[in-house]
Design brief:
six-stranded parallel beta sheet; Rossmann fold; 414 residues; seven-stranded parallel beta sheet
Length: 414
C-alpha cells in the first residue's frame, strides 16, 4: 500500500508538524508513504519538494503572485486566506507517484490549485487542520448556525462589506471542481467534524474523526528544575506557559484574553510569585503590562526545546477564540502539564474540566484567571492533574494510535 501525503511544507506551523509526524508514523506502521510539499525544510529523503532551481523558485513565488487577487478580499473576518487559483504542477507530481491513496492536508500558499485537486485520480483522504476546505478563502470563520459555509455562500450576508465577493467565487470553484462525495474527510476533533458535515460543500462526504498524535517518548514529564535550568527560567516562580505560531499577533489565538486574565491573576495572592513564559513571539519593544514578569523565547520549533518548555511550566494556557485540536495542548498533556482553555472547538475533547486542567466559560477572562489560579494554588492538586494529563495523552493522543487508525482507513478505502 502506497500513500502520498500533501502539505504546504514539512516544518513550519502546526499543520506541517502534524502531517510530518503522521508521515513518520505511517512509515513505522509499514505503509509506503511519501510526502509532497511546496517548500521543504528537512533533509528527509521521503519528503519531496519541487526539483530544480526554476521549479522551487516558482513555488516560492506563487503566493506573491496571488497577492493581487487577495487584495480583492473585502470580508470582515481577519486571518489567513487562500485562493489556490494558480496552476502548480502538484497534480502531475501526485500522479507520478502512482499511489493507492492521496492524503491531503493543509494546502495554503498556492500549494495546489482547486482545479488540480479535482484531477486527482486516486482515492482522496483530506485531513482538515482548519476550515478552509469547506469555506471560501477563509481558514477560520464564524461557525454559528447562519455561517456562510453552512448556507452555501449565498449573496449578501453580514460578512460582505461591498463589491466582489471573493469567498463566494472561491467556494463556487470548489463546488465546480470537486466530487466531494468521493472524498473521505478526516478531522482531528469532533467539533471540526460537525462543521464539515453541516457544510453545504461536504455534507455528502464521509467524515471520520482521528485525533492528532505526538511522540510520547519525546514529549514526556521531565524534571522541572532541570528544564528550567537549561532554559534559564526562574527556579522559584510559578510559570504560566503560552505559545503558538504568531502567538501574540494572531487574533484567533486569544492573547488579548490572556492579557486580561493575567492582570486579574496578578491582582490576587498568586501575582507575587507567578511569571509568564511566551513562545512563538519575541518580546515587544514596549513591554506589555501583565502585572507580572514575562519571558519571551521567540520562535521554537524543535521537539526537544518544546518538551523542555512544557516540562518547565506549572500550567499551559490556550486562550484561543477558535481552535481545532491544537498540537500545543496535546504536547503539554503528554509532558504532564495541566492545561487551561476556553470551552470552545476541540478543547473539551482534550481537557477534562478539573481532571487534567480547567475549561473556562468562553471568553470570560475572570473565569480564565480563576482556572489558572485553581491549577497553581494547590501543589497536591497540581500533581494529581499532571498525572491525569499524561494518562490522557497516552490513552488518546499517541502517534502510534493516529498512524494505526489512518492506515486502517486507507485499507478500507482501497
Amino acid at each position: 500500500m502506497k500513500a502520498v501525503l500533501v502539505n504546504a511544507d514539512d516544518g513550519i506551523g502546526g499543520a506541517a508538524r502534524a502531517c510530518y509526524r503522521l508521515h513518520r508514523g505511517l512509515l513505522a506502521e509499514g505503509v509506503e508513504a511519501r510526502m509532497l510539499v511546496r517548500t521543504t525544510y528537512s533533509d528527509d529523503e521521503t519528503v519531496s519538494g519541487p526539483r530544480g532551481f526554476l521549479r522551487s523558485s516558482a513555488a516560492r513565488l506563487r503566493p506573491y503572485l496571488a497577492g493581487p487577487l487577495l487584495a480583492l478580499h473585502n470580508q470582515e473576518m481577519a486571518g489567513v486566506h487562500s485562493i489556490n487559483a494558480l496552476p502548480t504542477g502538484m497534480a502531475r507530481r501526485i500522479a507520478a507517484e502512482r499511489a493507492d491513496i492521496v492524503h491531503l492536508h493543509l494546502l495554503s500558499k498556492e500549494t495546489i490549485s482547486i482545479a488540480e485537486v479535482g484531477r486527482i485520480a486516486a482515492p482522496v483522504v483530506w485531513t482538515l487542520h482548519d476550515m478552509w476546505t469547506f469555506c471560501g478563502t477563509e481558514h477560520y470563520t464564524d461557525d454559528g448556525p447562519a455561517a456562510r459555509f453552512r448556507t452555501g455562500y449565498t449573496h449578501g450576508g453580514t460578512a460582505v462589506k461591498r463589491g466582489f465577493d471573493l469567498d463566494r467565487w472561491t467556494w463556487k470553484r470548489k463546488r465546480r471542481h470537486w466530487a466531494t462525495e468521493r472524498m473521505t474527510v478526516v478531522t482531528p476533533s469532533r467539533w471540526m467534524a460537525e462543521c464539515a458535515r453541516s457544510s453545504a460543500l461536504f455534507r455528502d462526504a464521509t467524515v471520520e474523526v482521528i485525533p492528532n498524535g505526538v511522540d510520547t517518548r519525546l514529549y514526556k514529564p521531565l524534571d522541572r528544575a532541570v528544564a528550567r535550568d537549561i532554559l534559564n527560567l526562574p527556579a522559584d516562580r510559578k510559570l504560566v506557559l503560552f505559545g503558538a505560531m504568531r502567538a501574540t499577533s494572531d487574533r484567533r489565538k486569544g492573547f488579548r484574553f490572556l492579557e486580561a486574565a493575567l492582570r486579574r491573576l496578578a491582582a490576587g495572592p498568586l501575582g507575587a510569585e507567578t511569571d509568564l513564559v511566551v513562545f512563538g513571539a519575541t518580546a515587544p519593544a514596549t513591554p506589555d503590562d501583565f502585572g507580572l514578569p514575562a519571558h519571551y523565547t521567540g520562535r521554537v520549533s524543535d521537539d526537544i526545546s518544546l518538551a523542555l518548555l512544557y516540562a518547565a511550566a506549572d500550567v499551559f494556557v490556550a486562550p484561543s477564540q477558535q481552535d481545532n485540536l491544537p498540537n500545543t495542548v496535546v504536547e503539554a498533556l503528554a509532558c504532564g502539564t495541566p492545561c487551561v482553555a476556553f470551552r470552545i472547538g476541540g478543547m473539551p475533547e482534550m481537557i477534562a474540566h478539573q481532571e487534567n486542567g480547567y475549561l473556562a466559560e468562553p471568553f470570560d477572562t475572570d473565569d480564565l484567571a480563576a482556572g489558572l489560579a485553581w491549577v497553581l494554588e494547590d501543589a497536591v492538586r497540581a500533581a494529581i492533574l499532571a498525572q491525569a494529563a499524561r494518562r490522557t495523552a497516552l490513552a488518546s493522543f499517541t502517534i502510534e494510535l493516529q498512524a494505526r487508525d489512518t492506515a486502517a482507513l486507507y485499507r478500507r478505502l482501497i
